[in-house]
Amino acid sequence: MPLESNSGSYAMASDELLLELAEEGICAIRFYTWSEPTVSLGYFQSASLLANSKELKTLPWVRRATGGEALVHHHELTYALGLPLIIAGHKSTLWQEKMHLIIQKSLLLLGVSLSEINLPEQRNDPSNLLCFHHHAPQDLIINRHKVVGSAQRKKKRGVIQHGGILLAQSTYTPSLPGILELSGIKLCPEKLSSIIVDECRNALGWAFKASVWSHEEEARIQYFVKHRYADTGWNDKR
After folding, report:
1. Which of 7, 35, 64, 67 is the most buried (most CB within 10 A)?
2. Are 49 and 41 within 8 A, CB to CB?
3. What predicted TM-score, i.e. pTM, was given to this entire model?
4. Closest CA to 93 of 186, 160, 19, 171
5. C-alpha closest to that of 102 among 229, 208, 212
6. Integer Cα distance of 121 and 189 in angstroms
7. Which CATH class is domain 4-235?
8. Which of 27, 131, 188, 200 is flagged as catalytic?
9. 27 is catalytic
10. Least confident piece of the model among 10-19, 78-87, 229-238
11. How far apart are the C-alpha atoms of 200 and 95, rounded to whole Å?
């Protein structure tokens, strides 16, 4: 699909549709940026956490379908990958490493070198609600700072994997430098997403067909927007 700029509720509703399509046997990947700075909470995080952050409580926020911790989506390229379980396999978490290796190679083609790979898990401050303050072994790191991370949600027949590529530092998260600050390289989201698709072709042997949402798919997205991701009661449920 072409690169989109989405609101938080529409972005998460679209990712939810990718999970439904994966359940129906369809593989899909989409890339998008954010129409305004937005916080997304992991599916199991408490909404009350935002009230304790002076910077984040002023931002619009949405709950993700995937797990993990909070993200501030600002200067970021986000991807969502939907896979039928028959393709993802029962150890679907291996796809986080697969996609990160593809993203790593794509960044290298644009001159961005990752300084550390496969570091041990690290939680810098257990009380910090932000995902990018904590490192998992498959995360992509520059100078001890996380710049790419992903999370998943699995259902009976499908998996959705959602990940963020931190292109530059946000004024709302000054403790999290992005690729621009760490490498001096300003990346174009459109170009980076195109290269990642090419590298997916090379690494996975998949053929990709660009498409836009059908009228039926758009209606399903709008249903998720209304009844979940733009619904205050649904977002506040934890």
Report:
1. 64
2. yes
3. 0.91
4. 160
5. 208
6. 28
7. alpha beta
8. 131
9. no
10. 229-238
11. 12
